[in-house]
Specification:
HIT family, subunit A; 10-stranded antiparallel beta sheet; 15 strands
Length: 331
């Protein structure tokens, strides 16, 4: 029997379509052939002249390894750092200049490795680069939010195969983030507790949707997932801003993220995926009702007319089944 499940944070309804149930082997990732051709990789060592000048570099170790992680402006940015916002209205319409920042984080000098292949220490350097760039961009008074995201493989939007993530700093808070903040605040006002802290506590008791756990982080399949095998990484201790984590937590997060990606790769034959860091806006950095987290969404089923028209999502894989399958995989 299909089930309707309500997300406790934003109130979004999801249809768990059990009559369309799919197992991991039913999902087949598309080829990356379209972005494998073209010769030289601009993100590889020795090709640094093919990208804009570095903003941040973490030194590498070993011969020929001048860097371990590097960050530079996107050559084709969605937003540009120069200029003023110049907000203005035109009747019912509003506009402002596309001021912001769009940066690329190259996660490893090794073209053959993806984030899932890196050690915890190597992943922790990537996480530290996100933190350092967020802290720097926070100082720009024009900006209100930084979104960190990764597109893995062509079907998830990657145009370069070399392992990288991106940051986009915005002069406004994205609607999806604002909806999460609003839902979290409403829950807090009613119960005087953080909804994410309550989710962590309940999932630790229930265990059916838990995939992995370490001292600082819980990896779960959310109760009302939009997509099959959607996976969340939640801090066990309340913090609203990612950049406020203590240094030791980044290594623990690296472990949780690495395990999550390796389990998804093994379960689903290296699926395309997107992941997004959900963190608080700059002006809400220390608040009791919001809890930063990472959401990983494998690109396994298309969003079609019903989803666009209704705002509902149809997911053919119950999260309890996905969690049980992932939990048993050794990686």
């Amino acid at each position: 029997m299909p089930e309707l499940r309500k997300d406790p944070i934003v109130g979004r309804w999801v249809i768990i379509a059990t009559e369309r149930a799919k197992r991991p082997h039913d999902y087949h990732p598309e080829s990356d052939r379209s972005i494998e051709s073209g010769g030289v990789c601009p993100f590889c060592p020795g090709e640094e002249h093919r990208t804009p000048k570095d903003i941040l570099v973490y030194a590498g170790a070993g011969p020929g390894r001048d860097w371990a992680v590097r960050v530079f402006p996107n050559r084709y940015p969605a937003l540009k750092i120069e200029g003023g916002l110049d907000r203005e209205g035109d009747g019912v319409y509003d506009r402002m200049n596309g001021v912001g920042a769009h940066e690329v984080v190259v996660e490893t000098p090794d073209h053959q490795k993806q984030l899932a292949d890196l050690t915890d220490e190597e992943i922790a350097r990537v996480l530290a680069a996100w933190r350092d760039r967020i802290l720097d961009l926070e100082r720009d008074r024009r900006l209100r939010y930084v979104m960190v995201f990764k597109n893995h493989r062509a079907a998830a939007g990657a145009s370069v195969l070399h392992s990288h993530s991106q940051l986009i700093a915005l002069p406004t808070v994205p609607k999806n983030v604002a909806d999460e903040m609003k839902g979290s605040l409403e829950y807090y006002q009613f119960k005087e507790r953080c909804v994410f802290c309550d989710i962590v506590a309940q999932e630790q008791r229930d265990r059916r949707r838990v995939v992995h756990e370490n001292g600082a982080f819980l990896v779960v399949e959310p109760y009302a997932p939009k997509f099959p095998f959607e996976t969340w990484i939640l801090p066990k201790h309340h913090r609203s801003a990612y950049e406020d984590c203590p240094p030791a937590d980044y290594l623990a997060l690296a472990g949780a993220l690495g395990v999550s990606l390796r389990k998804l790769r093994r379960a689903l034959d290296d699926p395309p995926y997107n992941f997004i860091l959900h963190t608080s806006p700059f002006q809400d950095r220390h608040i009791p009702y919001y809890h930063w987290h990472i959401e990983i969404m494998p690109t396994l089923s298309p969003v079609a007319g019903f989803e666009w028209g209704s705002g509902f999502y149809i997911n053919p894989t119950p999260p309890e089944e996905a969690a049980a399958f992932l939990r048993e995989l050794d990686v």
